[in-house]
Protein backbone atom coordinates (compact mmCIF):
# COMPACT_ATOMS: atom_id res chain seq x y z
CA UNK A 1 0.00 0.00 0.00
CA UNK A 2 2.72 2.48 1.04
CA UNK A 3 6.38 2.03 0.13
CA UNK A 4 9.47 4.15 0.75
CA UNK A 5 12.38 3.36 -1.58
CA UNK A 6 15.89 4.59 -0.74
CA UNK A 7 14.56 7.77 0.90
CA UNK A 8 17.14 10.29 2.10
CA UNK A 9 16.73 13.82 3.41
CA UNK A 10 19.74 16.04 3.91
CA UNK A 11 19.78 19.37 5.76
CA UNK A 12 23.03 21.16 4.87
CA UNK A 13 25.66 18.52 5.66
CA UNK A 14 23.52 16.33 7.92
CA UNK A 15 21.26 13.44 6.94
CA UNK A 16 18.01 13.41 8.95
CA UNK A 17 17.00 10.27 7.03
CA UNK A 18 19.40 8.09 5.06
CA UNK A 19 18.57 5.33 2.53
CA UNK A 20 15.29 4.43 4.24
CA UNK A 21 13.32 1.49 2.82
CA UNK A 22 9.95 0.69 4.34
CA UNK A 23 6.59 -0.75 3.33
CA UNK A 24 3.07 -1.08 4.73
CA UNK A 25 0.46 -3.61 3.66
CA UNK A 26 -3.20 -2.66 3.54
CA UNK A 27 -4.94 -3.37 6.87
CA UNK A 28 -1.81 -3.26 9.06
CA UNK A 29 -0.94 -1.17 12.08
CA UNK A 30 2.79 -0.48 11.75
CA UNK A 31 4.89 1.09 14.49
CA UNK A 32 7.76 3.49 13.85
CA UNK A 33 10.05 3.84 16.87
CA UNK A 34 13.13 5.84 17.64
CA UNK A 35 14.64 8.05 20.36
CA UNK A 36 14.48 11.83 20.00
CA UNK A 37 16.48 12.98 16.99
CA UNK A 38 16.23 9.60 15.24
CA UNK A 39 14.61 11.07 12.12
CA UNK A 40 11.01 9.90 12.69
CA UNK A 41 9.40 13.31 12.23
CA UNK A 42 11.29 13.91 8.98
CA UNK A 43 10.33 10.46 7.69
CA UNK A 44 6.68 11.07 8.57
CA UNK A 45 6.73 14.47 6.85
CA UNK A 46 8.11 12.84 3.70
CA UNK A 47 5.58 9.99 3.64
CA UNK A 48 2.81 12.53 4.33
CA UNK A 49 3.87 14.43 1.16
CA UNK A 50 4.66 17.53 3.23
CA UNK A 51 8.45 17.46 2.68
CA UNK A 52 10.31 16.42 -0.47
CA UNK A 53 13.20 14.01 0.04
CA UNK A 54 16.71 14.74 -1.19
CA UNK A 55 16.66 11.35 -2.90
CA UNK A 56 14.37 8.33 -3.25
CA UNK A 57 10.72 7.75 -3.97
CA UNK A 58 7.46 7.18 -2.06
CA UNK A 59 4.68 5.09 -3.60
CA UNK A 60 1.03 4.72 -2.60
CA UNK A 61 -0.70 1.86 -4.43
CA UNK A 62 2.28 1.82 -6.83
CA UNK A 63 1.88 5.51 -7.73
CA UNK A 64 4.40 8.19 -6.80
CA UNK A 65 3.08 10.56 -4.17
CA UNK A 66 5.95 12.94 -4.90
CA UNK A 67 4.71 13.45 -8.46
CA UNK A 68 1.03 13.57 -7.53
CA UNK A 69 0.59 14.51 -3.85
CA UNK A 70 -2.97 15.83 -4.30
CA UNK A 71 -4.52 12.43 -5.03
CA UNK A 72 -2.62 10.91 -2.10
CA UNK A 73 -3.87 13.57 0.32
CA UNK A 74 -7.45 12.67 -0.54
CA UNK A 75 -6.99 9.19 0.96
CA UNK A 76 -4.50 9.92 3.77
CA UNK A 77 -5.24 11.34 7.22
CA UNK A 78 -2.52 12.96 9.34
CA UNK A 79 -2.68 13.26 13.14
CA UNK A 80 0.17 15.65 14.02
CA UNK A 81 2.08 15.54 17.28
CA UNK A 82 1.10 19.14 18.02
CA UNK A 83 -2.57 19.99 18.57
CA UNK A 84 -3.86 21.59 15.33
CA UNK A 85 -7.25 23.04 16.34
CA UNK A 86 -8.92 26.43 16.68
CA UNK A 87 -9.38 26.74 20.43
CA UNK A 88 -11.99 29.53 20.23
CA UNK A 89 -14.30 27.34 18.14
CA UNK A 90 -16.43 24.43 19.34
CA UNK A 91 -15.62 20.83 18.39
CA UNK A 92 -18.43 20.88 15.84
CA UNK A 93 -17.21 24.16 14.34
CA UNK A 94 -13.66 22.82 14.08
CA UNK A 95 -14.87 19.72 12.26
CA UNK A 96 -17.04 21.77 9.92
CA UNK A 97 -14.12 24.09 9.09
CA UNK A 98 -11.71 21.24 8.33
CA UNK A 99 -14.41 19.29 6.50
CA UNK A 100 -14.82 22.17 4.06
CA UNK A 101 -11.06 22.15 3.49
CA UNK A 102 -11.53 18.51 2.47
CA UNK A 103 -14.30 19.80 0.13
CA UNK A 104 -17.04 17.92 1.96
CA UNK A 105 -20.33 19.85 1.91
CA UNK A 106 -23.95 19.94 2.97
CA UNK A 107 -25.66 16.87 4.35
CA UNK A 108 -22.60 14.69 3.68
CA UNK A 109 -20.46 16.97 5.85
CA UNK A 110 -23.04 17.03 8.66
CA UNK A 111 -23.22 13.24 8.63
CA UNK A 112 -19.43 12.91 8.71
CA UNK A 113 -19.25 15.36 11.64
CA UNK A 114 -21.83 13.32 13.59
CA UNK A 115 -20.11 10.01 12.75
CA UNK A 116 -16.69 11.31 13.75
CA UNK A 117 -17.99 12.77 17.03
CA UNK A 118 -19.37 9.33 17.88
CA UNK A 119 -16.06 7.63 17.04
CA UNK A 120 -14.01 10.00 19.22
CA UNK A 121 -16.59 10.08 22.02
CA UNK A 122 -17.31 13.82 21.98
CA UNK A 123 -20.89 13.89 20.65
CA UNK A 124 -22.21 15.19 23.99
CA UNK A 125 -19.52 17.92 24.15
CA UNK A 126 -19.68 19.12 20.54
CA UNK A 127 -21.08 22.58 21.39
CA UNK A 128 -18.32 23.38 23.89
CA UNK A 129 -15.39 25.64 23.01
CA UNK A 130 -12.18 23.66 22.54
CA UNK A 131 -10.13 25.80 24.95
CA UNK A 132 -12.31 24.40 27.78
CA UNK A 133 -11.38 20.81 26.83
CA UNK A 134 -8.92 18.64 28.71
CA UNK A 135 -5.70 17.59 26.96
CA UNK A 136 -7.16 14.16 26.24
CA UNK A 137 -10.30 15.61 24.64
CA UNK A 138 -8.20 17.87 22.41
CA UNK A 139 -6.15 14.86 21.33
CA UNK A 140 -9.33 12.98 20.44
CA UNK A 141 -10.64 15.92 18.41
CA UNK A 142 -7.24 16.15 16.69
CA UNK A 143 -7.78 12.56 15.56
CA UNK A 144 -11.36 13.34 14.55
CA UNK A 145 -10.18 16.01 12.09
CA UNK A 146 -8.02 13.42 10.32
CA UNK A 147 -10.99 11.03 9.99
CA UNK A 148 -13.46 13.41 8.33
CA UNK A 149 -12.69 12.37 4.75
CA UNK A 150 -12.68 8.62 5.61
CA UNK A 151 -8.98 8.03 4.89
CA UNK A 152 -7.58 4.68 3.80
CA UNK A 153 -4.26 5.46 5.52
CA UNK A 154 -3.90 7.19 8.89
CA UNK A 155 -0.51 8.51 10.03
CA UNK A 156 -0.46 9.14 13.78
CA UNK A 157 2.52 10.97 15.27
CA UNK A 158 2.57 10.42 19.05
CA UNK A 159 -1.19 10.92 19.52
CA UNK A 160 -1.17 10.30 23.30
CA UNK A 161 1.52 12.74 24.43
CA UNK A 162 0.76 14.46 27.71
CA UNK A 163 -2.69 13.06 28.47
CA UNK A 164 -4.27 11.15 31.34
CA UNK A 165 -4.45 7.34 31.46
CA UNK A 166 -8.20 7.19 30.75
CA UNK A 167 -7.96 9.31 27.58
CA UNK A 168 -4.92 7.34 26.50
CA UNK A 169 -6.80 4.06 26.84
CA UNK A 170 -9.74 5.51 24.88
CA UNK A 171 -7.44 6.56 22.02
CA UNK A 172 -5.76 3.15 21.88
CA UNK A 173 -9.12 1.41 21.68
CA UNK A 174 -10.22 3.88 18.99
CA UNK A 175 -7.12 3.04 16.95
CA UNK A 176 -7.95 -0.67 17.25
CA UNK A 177 -11.54 0.01 16.20
CA UNK A 178 -10.52 2.07 13.17
CA UNK A 179 -8.23 -0.71 12.02
CA UNK A 180 -10.51 -3.70 12.65
CA UNK A 181 -13.96 -2.32 11.91
CA UNK A 182 -13.17 0.32 9.29
CA UNK A 183 -10.10 -1.30 7.70
CA UNK A 184 -7.95 1.82 8.12
CA UNK A 185 -4.24 1.16 7.65
CA UNK A 186 -2.30 2.96 10.38
CA UNK A 187 1.27 4.13 10.88
CA UNK A 188 1.77 4.79 14.60
CA UNK A 189 4.65 6.46 16.42
CA UNK A 190 4.87 6.71 20.19
CA UNK A 191 7.24 7.23 23.11
CA UNK A 192 5.38 4.50 25.00
CA UNK A 193 6.65 1.03 24.15
CA UNK A 194 3.59 -0.66 25.65
CA UNK A 195 1.36 1.18 23.15
CA UNK A 196 3.35 -0.12 20.20
CA UNK A 197 3.37 -3.65 21.62
CA UNK A 198 -0.41 -3.50 22.11
CA UNK A 199 -1.31 -2.07 18.72
CA UNK A 200 1.22 -2.92 16.05
CA UNK A 201 1.57 -5.88 13.70
CA UNK A 202 5.06 -4.91 12.59
CA UNK A 203 7.67 -2.45 13.85
CA UNK A 204 10.44 -0.35 12.34
CA UNK A 205 13.17 1.09 14.58
CA UNK A 206 15.14 4.19 13.57
CA UNK A 207 18.25 5.76 15.04
CA UNK A 208 20.40 8.61 13.75
CA UNK A 209 18.51 8.73 10.47
CA UNK A 210 18.87 5.03 9.72
CA UNK A 211 16.47 2.11 9.95
CA UNK A 212 18.26 -0.35 12.21
CA UNK A 213 15.61 -3.07 12.67
CA UNK A 214 12.33 -4.18 11.13
CA UNK A 215 9.94 -7.06 11.60
CA UNK A 216 7.14 -8.44 13.75
CA UNK A 217 7.39 -8.08 17.53
CA UNK A 218 8.45 -11.73 17.72
CA UNK A 219 11.15 -11.30 15.08
CA UNK A 220 12.59 -8.20 16.75
CA UNK A 221 12.54 -9.84 20.19
CA UNK A 222 14.61 -12.70 18.74
CA UNK A 223 17.49 -10.24 18.30
CA UNK A 224 18.17 -10.85 21.99
CA UNK A 225 17.01 -14.47 22.10
CA UNK A 226 20.41 -15.54 23.43
CA UNK A 227 20.26 -13.10 26.34
CA UNK A 228 18.32 -12.45 29.53
CA UNK A 229 17.75 -9.30 31.54
CA UNK A 230 18.37 -8.96 35.27
CA UNK A 231 16.32 -6.19 36.87
CA UNK A 232 17.91 -4.96 40.11
CA UNK A 233 16.11 -2.68 42.58
CA UNK A 234 18.20 -1.19 45.36
CA UNK A 235 17.83 1.17 48.32
CA UNK A 236 20.25 3.52 46.59
CA UNK A 237 22.87 3.40 43.84
CA UNK A 238 26.46 4.62 43.78
CA UNK A 239 28.71 5.42 40.83
CA UNK A 240 31.36 2.83 41.85
CA UNK A 241 28.68 0.08 41.96
CA UNK A 242 27.32 1.08 38.54
CA UNK A 243 30.85 1.29 37.11
CA UNK A 244 31.71 -2.18 38.43
CA UNK A 245 28.59 -3.61 36.75
CA UNK A 246 29.34 -1.87 33.46
CA UNK A 247 32.92 -3.13 33.39
CA UNK A 248 32.14 -6.68 34.55
CA UNK A 249 33.38 -8.99 31.75
CA UNK A 250 30.16 -11.06 31.47
CA UNK A 251 27.78 -8.07 31.34
CA UNK A 252 26.65 -7.02 27.85
CA UNK A 253 24.85 -3.78 28.75
CA UNK A 254 23.63 -1.77 31.75
CA UNK A 255 20.69 0.65 31.88
CA UNK A 256 20.19 2.81 34.99
CA UNK A 257 16.86 4.42 35.90
CA UNK A 258 16.38 5.99 39.34
CA UNK A 259 16.98 3.17 41.86
CA UNK A 260 16.67 0.39 39.28
CA UNK A 261 19.30 -1.19 37.04
CA UNK A 262 18.66 -3.51 34.10
CA UNK A 263 21.62 -5.71 33.21
CA UNK A 264 21.78 -7.76 30.01
CA UNK A 265 23.80 -10.99 30.06
CA UNK A 266 23.98 -14.17 28.01
CA UNK A 267 21.40 -16.80 28.93
CA UNK A 268 23.97 -19.18 30.39
CA UNK A 269 25.57 -16.59 32.70
CA UNK A 270 24.80 -16.85 36.44
CA UNK A 271 25.55 -13.44 37.91
CA UNK A 272 23.69 -13.78 41.20
CA UNK A 273 26.60 -14.54 43.59
CA UNK A 274 28.87 -11.91 42.06
CA UNK A 275 26.05 -9.37 42.14
CA UNK A 276 25.48 -9.95 45.88
CA UNK A 277 29.21 -9.59 46.50
CA UNK A 278 29.41 -6.32 44.53
CA UNK A 279 26.42 -4.90 46.42
CA UNK A 280 27.90 -5.89 49.81
CA UNK A 281 31.22 -4.32 48.95
CA UNK A 282 29.49 -1.07 47.89
CA UNK A 283 27.28 -1.14 51.02
CA UNK A 284 24.12 -1.24 48.90
CA UNK A 285 20.94 -2.96 50.07
CA UNK A 286 19.31 -4.94 47.27
CA UNK A 287 15.51 -4.84 47.42
CA UNK A 288 14.88 -7.32 44.59
CA UNK A 289 16.62 -9.14 41.75
CA UNK A 290 14.41 -10.46 38.93
CA UNK A 291 15.46 -12.39 35.85
CA UNK A 292 13.32 -11.86 32.73
CA UNK A 293 13.35 -12.77 29.09
CA UNK A 294 14.20 -9.69 26.99
CA UNK A 295 11.34 -7.34 26.15
CA UNK A 296 10.90 -5.05 23.15
CA UNK A 297 12.18 -2.23 25.38
CA UNK A 298 15.36 -4.25 26.06
CA UNK A 299 15.89 -4.79 22.33
CA UNK A 300 15.36 -1.10 21.64
CA UNK A 301 17.90 -0.17 24.31
CA UNK A 302 20.33 -2.75 22.93
CA UNK A 303 20.03 -1.37 19.37
CA UNK A 304 20.05 2.37 20.10
CA UNK A 305 21.82 2.62 23.46
CA UNK A 306 18.97 4.84 24.64
CA UNK A 307 15.53 4.31 26.16
CA UNK A 308 12.58 5.21 23.93
CA UNK A 309 11.76 8.32 25.96
CA UNK A 310 15.34 9.67 25.76
TrEMBL record:
**Entry-linked InterPro entries:** AAA+_ATPase (IPR003593), ABC_transporter-like_ATP-bd (IPR003439), ABC_transporter-like_CS (IPR017871), P-loop_NTPase (IPR027417)
Any keyword Disulfide bond? Answer: no
Give all residue intervals belonging to the ABC transporter domain: 2-233
**GO: which molecular function terms?**
ATP binding; ATP hydrolysis activity
Q: Does the keyword rRNA processing apply?
A: no
Q: Which UniProt keywords apply?
A: ATP-binding, Nucleotide-binding
Kindly give the PANTHER family that the UniProt entry links to this protein. Answer: LINEARMYCIN RESISTANCE ATP-BINDING PROTEIN LNRL
Recorded protein name is ABC-2 type transport system ATP-binding protein
Lineage of source species: Bacteria, Bacillati, Bacillota, Bacilli, Bacillales
